[in-house]
């Protein structure tokens, strides 16, 4: 029997190393050169792919990715009669704003992205804005709704969804107007984190303008039990209860209210109600809950890439199995803004720092019609760089489905008011 | 006065709910001397079992409670020896290694659930979900009553088991001194596996209740881990009876602060209580372990 090893000998290792070295010095640069000839736009998506906002994070990612797939299927973004595909890079903020800022920096420095698509939460968006400013990379945010994002006057960030202070109050006014007998009192609950708190403030301020008496305004911790606050509000017996929060607290508000046998005449929430997961988690108990939406598949808008809003919804449904909500739609529309701006700019990838500054100016000058609706960014004031064009629609869950109930010109069904007792 | 009584009731019921997943945690700490960060993971797994049994088989979510005990008890029994080995290894700072292991287990459970079942929030439907009983001016949510009764029953059952049976005596002896218990013929390794299995089973049962009262998604586990830890510190690490008392105390404080001061101050009040108790009585409110 031979005593020689059939595995690795020193000669083999040295020989292998020489081949690897040669490949490293000669081959890899060759590969790089070959890749560099196929220029692509690089887009970074920062969102919550883990942590407590993972549901919304994935929803935003789905929206951004839908655009990338749709535009790549057409050959890519058009610049000077040429088409350039888009490469998407993901950064996970882990539902933590500081981590979001780190993820943005990594996308910019390591992946050398030309544009960023913004996080799911407003908190992360606010944290990422200085990074965009530092590296002069434009960001298009398809989800952020907190007015504080725009009050900071971010030079490089642009928002597709109108800030919540413009939508919550308007929707409440519509609800108050449609209520019969007319609602007189309201209690507002806001989860104590940026977007939810500001939604609560939007409801509170909107209530005053709508002539409703605010009998309670409660900020609750995201992880707290809601029984005490619902009991307190039940004792005040308001006509309307308005809630600012993300999915899980909204579900818990309904469950806790039912367990305490408290049913206000109307229950209005903001984001989350339009997500089909809300109705699925609560089954029949979701019925009657109202919400605010700036987009529905039934709106009469269209564009060249996605077609009509209904066609977009069908495409998204086919992809994920869920009907898209307004955030997913706004994220997909974010890509349309980038495509339009870079086309007008006429700069091919990869964009230089000067190109990105010019891209930012081109985005600021956006004035387009999309399946999501009109997109045009404010140039001054408290909603600087936010698209406040879309008109909010009051929706209500009826028979497990989201239907538009107001204002009258957008309504597909009558508002159920007052809500019947719990079954 | 009605609101006061309702707040007191709410507080006691919240306490009962918190106690359900803290009792097993205390037992595991008492015997294994490990702060198990995976406690929230077991809670969420129990919740998912309840949801999938109700959604898939169309049965009442509460039917998952005994199955959760058997299934996750068995899994816990298999994990127990690993934890025991790490905790009693000769490496430097085995207590920190064990802590890291449970943290890793929690991360693994969370990531696994996320991959397997996605990120949507679900609810465990039961016959008691949303049902309430009107007692005079008070509204009594029945599913929370069920959780509080469960907590008292488990605490009572464990008390009888620990103080009235020979095996309970062995557990208490091990909690007090592993060496002495081993010298008296107790198989510490098997006992640790049994205790971890018992803990995982009890905690997963509590998870079914949590899924019925609140909702379940892979991310809520951390919250339960933190609350279990708060209650355990307040109770005195390892004290099963203290866990019940501490959970009720925290529940009542949370309810009264939320109702009469403001919900945004409830966590502040809980931390302040924890701080004060640690300052005055570092061994916890009942000043003893198992």
Offer a concise description of the structure.
Chain A is of the alpha/beta class and 423 residues long. Chain A contains 13 helices and 18 strands. Chain A folds into two domains: 41-162 and 298-376, Response regulator (Rossmann fold); 165-293 and 392-410, Rossmann fold (3-Layer(aba) Sandwich), CATH 3.40.50.
Q: What would you say this structure looks like, in words?
A:
The complex is a heterodimer of chains A (423) and B (290). By secondary structure, chain A is α/β, with parallel strands linked by helices. Chain A folds into two domains: 41-162 and 298-376, 3-Layer(aba) Sandwich (Rossmann fold); 165-293 and 392-410, Response regulator (Rossmann fold). Chain A has helices at 10-36, 54-73, 97-109, 122-135, 147-151, 164-178, 194-209, 227-236, 247-259, 276-282, 309-320, 326-345, 353-364, and strands at residues 41-47, 77-79, 82-84, 86-92, 115-117, 139-141, 157-159, 185-191, 213-220, 240-244, 266-269, 289-293, 302-303, 307-308, 367-370, 373-376, 393-398, 401-406. In chain A, β17 and β18 form a beta hairpin. In chain A, α2 packs across α12 (326-345) and α12 crosses α13 (353-364). Chain B has one domain (2-113, 162-280). Helices cover 74% and strands 3% of the residues of chain B. Chain B has helices at residues 2-32, 39-57, 64-87, 94-117, 142-164, 166-176, 178-183, 188-213, 221-235, 240-260, 266-280, and strands spanning 132-135, 138-141. A two-stranded antiparallel ribbon of chain B has the order 1-2. In chain B, α2 packs across α8 (188-213) and α3 (64-87) crosses α8 (188-213). The longest helix of chain B is centred in the first third of the chain and has 31 residues, at 2-32. Chains A and B meet through α2, β9, α8, α9 and α10 of A and α1, α5 and α10 of B. Chain B: One of its GO terms (biological process) is amino acid transport. Chain B: The chain crosses the membrane at residues 12-32, 39-57, 63-84, 96-119, 139-163, 193-214, 226-253, 265-286. Chain B: This is Branched-chain amino acid ABC transporter permease. Chain B: Belongs to the binding-protein-dependent transport system permease family. LivHM subfamily.
């Amino acid at each position: 029997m031979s005593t020689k090893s059939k595995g690795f000998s020193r000669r083999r290792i040295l020989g292998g190393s020489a081949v690897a070295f040669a490949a490293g010095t000669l081959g890899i640069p060759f590969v790089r050169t070959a890749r560099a000839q196929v220029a692509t736009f690089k887009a970074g998506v920062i969102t919550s792919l883990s942590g407590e906002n993972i549901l919304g994070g994935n929803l935003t990612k789905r929206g951004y990715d839908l655009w990338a797939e749709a535009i790549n299927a057409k050959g890519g973004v058009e610049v000077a009669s040429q088409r350039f595909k888009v490469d998407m890079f993901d950064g996970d903020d882990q539902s933590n704003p500081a981590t979001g800022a780190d993820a943005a920096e990594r996308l910019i420095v390591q992946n050398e992205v030309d544009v960023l698509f913004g996080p799911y939460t407003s908190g992360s968006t606010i944290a990422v804005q200085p990074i965009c400013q530092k590296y002069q990379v434009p960001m298009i945010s398809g989800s952020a709704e907190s007015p504080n994002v725009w009050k900071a006057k971010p030079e490089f960030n642009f928002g597709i969804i109108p800030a919540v202070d413009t939508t919550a109050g308007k929707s409440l006014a519509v609800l108050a107007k449609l209520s019969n007998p007319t609602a007189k009192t309201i209690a507002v609950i806001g989860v104590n984190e940026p977007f939810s708190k500001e939604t609560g403030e939007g409801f509170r301020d909107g209530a005053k303008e709508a002539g409703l008496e605010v009998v309670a305004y409660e900020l609750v911790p995201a992880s707290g039990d809601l029984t005490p606050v619902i009991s307190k509000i039940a004792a005040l017996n308001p006509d309307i209860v308005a809630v600012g929060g993300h999915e899980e607290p909204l579900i818990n508000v309904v469950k806790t209210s039912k367990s305490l046998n408290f049913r206000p005449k109307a229950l209005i929430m903001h984001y989350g109600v339009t997500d089909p997961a809300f109705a699925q988690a609560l089954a029949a108990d979701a019925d009657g809950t109202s919400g605010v939406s700036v987009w529905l598949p039934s709106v009469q808008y269209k564009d060249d890439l996605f077609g009509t809003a209904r066609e977009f919804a069908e495409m998204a449904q086919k992809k994920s199995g869920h009907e898209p909500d307004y955030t997913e739609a706004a994220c997909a529309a974010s890509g349309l803004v980038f495509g339009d701006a870079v086309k007008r700019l006429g700069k091919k990838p990869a964009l230089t720092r000067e190109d990105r500054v010019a891209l930012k100016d081109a985005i600021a000058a956006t004035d387009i019609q999309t399946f999501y609706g009109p997109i045009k960014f404010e140039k001054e004031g408290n909603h600087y760089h936010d698209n406040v064009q879309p008109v909010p629609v009051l929706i209500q869950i009826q028979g497990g489905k989201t239907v538009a109930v107001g204002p009258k010109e957008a309504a597909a069904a009558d508002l159920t008011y007052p809500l019947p007792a719990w079954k | 006065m009605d609101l006061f009584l309702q707040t007191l009731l709410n507080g006691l019921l919240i306490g009962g709910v918190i106690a359900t997943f803290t009792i097993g945690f205390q037992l595991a700490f008492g015997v294994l001397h490990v702060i198990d960060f995976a406690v929230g993971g077991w809670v969420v797994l129990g919740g998912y079992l309840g949801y999938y049994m109700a959604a898939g088989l169309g049965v009442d979510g509460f039917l998952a409670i005994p199955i959760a005990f058997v299934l996750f008890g068995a899994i816990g029994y298999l994990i127990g020896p690993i934890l025991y080995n790490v905790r009693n290894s000769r490496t430097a700072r085995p207590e920190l290694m064990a802590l890291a292991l449970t943290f890793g287990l929690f991360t693994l459970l969370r990531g696994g659930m996320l991959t397997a079942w996605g990120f949507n929030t679900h609810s465990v439907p039961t016959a008691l979900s949303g049902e309430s009983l009107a007692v005079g001016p008070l509204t009594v949510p029945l599913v929370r009553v069920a959780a509080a009764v469960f907590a008292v029953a488990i605490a009572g059952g464990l008390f009888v088991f620990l103080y009235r049976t020979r095996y309970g005596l062995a557990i208490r002896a091990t909690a007090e001194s592993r060496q002495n218990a081993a010298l008296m013929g107790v198989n510490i390794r098997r006992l640790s596996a049994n205790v971890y299995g018992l803990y995982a089973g009890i905690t997963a049962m509590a998870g079914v209740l949590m899924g019925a009262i609140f909702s379940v998604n892979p991310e809520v586990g951390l919250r339960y881990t933190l609350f279990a830890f708060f209650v355990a510190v307040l109770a005195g690490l390892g004290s099963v009876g203290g866990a019940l008392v501490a959970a009720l105390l925290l529940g009542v404080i949370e309810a009264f602060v939320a109702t009469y001061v403001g919900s945004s101050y409830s966590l502040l009040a809980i931390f302040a209580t924890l701080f004060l108790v640690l300052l005055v009585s570092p061994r916890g409110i009942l000043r003893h372990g198992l």
